Amino acid sequence: MKKVKIKSPGTVANLVCGFDILGLALNEPSDIMELSLLDEPKVIIHNRDNYNLPTEAEKNVAGVVLLSVMEKAGKHIGFEITIEKHIKPGSGIGSSAASAAGAAVAANHLLGNIFSIDEVVQFAMNGEKLASGVKHADNIAPCILGGVSLIRAIHPLDIISIPSPDLFVTVIHPQIEVRTSDARQILKQQVLLKDAIRQWGNIAGLVTGFMKNDFDLIGRSLEDVIIEPVRSILIPGFDEVKRKCKEAGALGGGISGSGPSVFMLSKDESTAKGVELVMKDVYNRIGIEYNTYVTTINKKGVEIL
Ligand code: HSE
To answer: CATH assignment of 168-296?
Structure first.
């Protein structure tokens, strides 16, 4: 087996209250990649999209992941990868994670799955480090595993898959640029104890809500008193979108990852589609272009096609 084709899903990180520790995978959008094994130690990258991402391995998210796999495998191997991105870089729906996780899973597949899931996550986190300056697994873990993931710790890695109801996810990606590195830099380095207590309550409530299919608890827990008040100023219309989506029946939602995408969870498809109309209406009035998705939670993660 020398060649593999995979589909790597978009993801929503943080899930509002769980900064860097919670995320879920989406059925739409996803990237497609083809990876072949070479018998020379080099990485060749082809982009089959219009995003003009770098093709030097050291500067490409998938490239650095493949280099780290080669180093650990310790064999005389290389890779040739063709990347067809449908998840726009800088969208906040896990574009870099899809490249990183997809490359790591595909490489492991070609090598006969010699690495454990934790090792594959570690490889993929090298891509996140290149993209955002920091290793975090709240996009990577759900991208690889599917469903909802809790990353209890990354040193050492401790990832827990959380069962969840079949929720609908509405995402709007306003076409403005928010770089993850910038959106991390503006965060305060200290939090008040009273805010931390409220946030702990919300994280525990959200995880319990997912596990017990308790929609009201999920809705109540989708609250962020630490990150959102700072980051939401980067997203025009954020407060209005959030308020109107909840009035339209969404359980709740907020900034997807570091933004600028905003996501909302709903119990059923008709509510999720109504929420999409509300989102579009706000951005039509503000005059910002957008993409929207009405999708569901992806339970499979990266798929070998
Ligand atoms: N947890 C990360 C953040 C996700 O919010 O910065 C973005 O990649």
So the answer is: 3.30.70.890
> What is the per-residue pLDDT across 80-126, written as a single tens digit (0 to 9) for each?
999 999 999 999 999 999 999 999 999 999 999 999 999 999 999 99
Domain boundaries, the chain: 3-163+300-304, 168-296
pTM above 0.85, yes or no: yes
Instruction: Give the SS3 label for residue 53.
Output: coil
Closest of 54, 9, 19 to residue 206, by C-alpha: 19
CATH classification code of 3-163+300-304: 3.30.230.10
80 a catalytic residue: no
Question: Which residues are paired to 23 by β-bridges?
Answer: 13, 149
- Give tens-digit pLDDT for 40-80: 999 999 999 999 999 999 999 999 999 999 999 988 899 99
Closest atom of ligand 1 to 19 CA is: 1
3-state secondary structure of 148: strand
Q: How far is the CA of 94 from the centre of ligand 1 (A)?
A: 9
Q: Are 54 and 131 in contact (CB under 8 A)?
A: no
